[in-house]
Specification:
This protein has 76 residues and is an alpha+beta fold. The chain is 49% helix and 16% strand.
Length: 76
């Protein structure tokens, strides 16, 4: 089975420290076999929030993301 952009980025998130920004995701995706445009990175992060893998936060007035804990995932 072929890996998706979301799965690839989630794997990178699990192996690095956050918080994760759109800029971080765009940079990481530029080293992947997937699209690395800013809008693609933003949409991928949003889809990971919708899947329950990330939670949005504000840091310095900007949007960033952190991985959810197992208890946060089961609460949904």
């Amino acid at each position: 089975m072929e890996q998706t952009r979301r799965a690839w980025l989630l794997d990178r998130i699990e192996h690095s420290d956050g918080p994760y920004t759109t800029h971080w995701a765009e940079t990481e995706l530029s080293a992947s076999p997937f699209s690395c445009h800013r809008n693609s990175a933003r949409k991928t992060l949003r889809s990971l929030v919708a899947d329950g893998a990330l939670v949005p936060i504000e840091t310095g007035g900007r949007r960033a993301y952190l991985p959810t804990t197992n208890s946060e995932r089961s609460a949904a």
